[in-house]
Amino acid sequence: MEAAADHKPAMSVHNTTVVIIGAGPAGLATSVCLSKLSIANTILEKEHVACSLWKNRAYDRLRLHVAKQYCHLPFAPPHSSSLPTFMSKDQFVSYVDTYVSTFRIKPTFDRHVTSAAYDAGTGKWRVEAQAAGGRREVYVAEFLVVAAGENGVPFFPRVDGMEGFGGLTVHSSGYRNGSGFAGKDVLVVGCGNSGMEIGLDLCNHGARVSIVVRNPFHVVTRGMVYLGMRMMKYMKMEYVDSIVASVANLYYGDLSKYGIHRPSDGPFTYKSTAGKTPVIDVGTIDKIRAGQIQVVPGIKRVKGRNEVEFADGTTRRFDAIVFATGYRSSANSWLKDFRYIFNEEGMPKNRTPDHWKGENGIYCAGYSKMGINGISNDAEAISQDIMSQIMKNN
C-alpha cells in the first residue's frame, strides 16, 4: 500500500540582503535608510496594515507627548506648520501613511513570523513565516533587523482572584474611549501616561474613577518636556533635571498628600536609568485634587464578583477594571538566537547608545525607549553599519 500523501503547504524560499520584521515606524524608517543606500530589504508584518499599534491599539484621545520637531522620520520633509506642536494620533498616522507612499515602501503583510535563526554554516539568517491560508515561506538574508517593537503583546499582571471578577476587564490596547462607562465605578490599574490619560477620559465621560498608584513617578506638562529637550542641546542632563524638577514642583506643589510621590532622580535621569517615562499631565492631576479621581494603593486580591481588596486592607466595589499595564516584547517567542542581541525579557542586552547592534548580523530598531527620535537614530545607525559590513565583505 502506498504511503499517504503529505498535504503540508508548499514552502517558498526568498533571498534578500536584509529582512526587517515589523512595519511600524521603526521598520519603515530602517527600510527607507537601507533603500537610500541601494540595499535590498524585505519587511515582514503580521498585520494587514503598517503602523498597526497606532491604528488598531491606541485610544482615541491619544496625542504625542513630544513636540513634532522631535518626531521626524529619516528623509521625510519637515512637519507642516499647520500641524499643532503635539500631534494627535490621527495626525501622526497620516504622517506615517504619507511616509509609506512617498518612499514607496511595500511591506509584505499578513506574514506571521514563526522562527528566525542564524545558520553558522552559511552565515545567513533563516526566517520562517506563515502567510494566508497556512502557506509557509522562508526568507534567507545576510542581515536581520528586529523592528517588532517593545509593545509586542499586552501585559496583564497576575492578580489573586481575578478569574472570579464579574465585571468588565479590558487592556488599554482594547480601550477606545469612555463612552458606555457613565455612572460606573472603574478601576484603572497602571499610573503611566496611558493609565492617567484613560482615567481622565473615563472621568470626563461620567465614570467614577480610581487609579492604582504603587511606585513614585514624575508629573510634568508637555511644555516642561519640550523645554527640557531644548535645553539638553546646550546643558548637561543633571542641570536640565534640576530646572525641570523645580518648575514642576512650583507648578504642582506637594502631591504626596494625594498618594503621588516623586523619585529622587530627576525626570530625564530617571527615564535614562530606570526606563520610566514621566507622566505628561493633561488634566488628570486637577481631577485628583478635586476628588473626582481617587488614588488607591496596589491591589492585594479580588474578592467575589466585584470586590477589590487593596494593599492597605480597604475594599471597594468596581464595575470594570482597565489594565493600563503596558506591553511586553514578543521577539523571544520566535527569535531562536535571541541572545545575540536580547536578554531574557526580549529587550536589548547592550545599554543605549549601543543597544541597536548584536552579533552575526542582527540588529534591533525601536527599542531605545527614546520615541520617534530614537527610532530615527536607530534606523540611520543600522543602515550605515550594514553598508560598512557589505563593503568590507566585497
Give an overview in words.
The structure is a single chain. With 394 residues, the protein is an alpha/beta fold. Helix content is 27%, strand content 22%. It is built from 9 helices and 18 strands. The protein has helices at residues 25-36, 52-56, 89-102, 193-204, 222-231, 237-252, 267-274, 284-289, 371-393; strands spanning 11-21, 41-44, 112-119, 124-130, 136-146, 153-154, 168-171, 185-189, 208-212, 219-220, 279-280, 293-296, 299-303, 307-310, 315-317, 320-323, 327-328, 362-364. The strands form 5 sheets. Strands 1, 2, 3, 4, 5 and 18 form a 6-stranded mixed β-sheet that branches. The protein has a 5-stranded parallel β-sheet with strand order 7-16-8-9-12. It has a 3-stranded antiparallel β-sheet with strand order 13-14-15, with no helix packed on it. A hairpin with a 4-residue loop joins strand 3 and strand 4 (124-130). Helix 5 (222-231) packs antiparallel against helix 6. The longest helix is centred in the C-terminal third of the chain and has 23 residues, at 371-393. The relative contact order is 0.17.
- What's the β-strand tally? 18
Distance between the termini: 54 Å
The proportion of strand residues reads 15-25%
| Largest sheet properties | 6 strands, mixed
Protein structure class: alpha/beta
Q: Helix-strand pattern, N to C? A: EHEHHEEEEEEHEEHHHEHEEEEEEEH
Residue runs with pLDDT of under 50 for 5 or more positions? 1-5
By DSSP (H or I, 4+ residues per run), the number of helices equals 9
Rg from alpha-carbon coordinates: 23 Å
Helical residues, percent: 25-40%
The shape is globular
Mean pLDDT, rounded to whole units? 94
